[in-house]
Amino acid sequence: MYYCIKLSPEMQARVMNVFNAFFTIPEGWTKHCDHITLMHSSNEHWFAITGLMSNFIGKPINFNIIGVGYDENAMALEVNVHTTNKRAHITICTAPSHKPVESNNIKNWERLYCKDDFVGIVTIEK
User: Helices marked H in the chain — which ranges?
Assistant: First the structure.
């Protein structure tokens, strides 16, 4: 299980518009672009923080896109929210046979200027 900011189809389209203004999803890669992980149940603090996190379920969270990350397995957009991941991000796409979680291993990050505001709803996913 994990807490995340779920993106509506409208927000997904807006995020993809930002991505597509600078990059192209490579042929054969899988598009994702549906959430920002806030905390995964594998986190050592899951039980201590889960009570606090449950107060945010169903609430909107605003964010901005502040960077882009990429490697041979995944591409992601960095966002300005607090998360237990090293970098808060939206996994945009993954290479064939690779999973979205691999975007946590991206080491190549660059700043990206985007003046648009975005919003998503905090949910818990299984």
Answer: 9-22, 46-54
Q: Which domain holds residue 88?
A: 2-125
Q: What angle do CA 96, 101, 104 make, to 5 degrees?
A: 115
- Residue 118: left if φ>0, alpha if ψ -120 to 50, beta else—which one? beta
State pLDDT tens for residues 77-120.
Answer: 999 998 888 999 999 999 999 999 999 999 999 999 898 999 99
Q: Residues 6, 121: contact at Cβ < 8 Å? A: yes
3-state secondary structure of 45: coil
Beta bridge pairs of residue 5: 36, 122
The whole model's pTM is what?
0.92
Number of domains the chain contains: 1
**What CATH number did the domain enclosing 42 receive?**
3.90.1740.10
- Asked if residues 54 and 91 have their Cβ atoms less than 8 Å apart, the reply is no
- Could you tell me the two tokens for 17? 């518009």
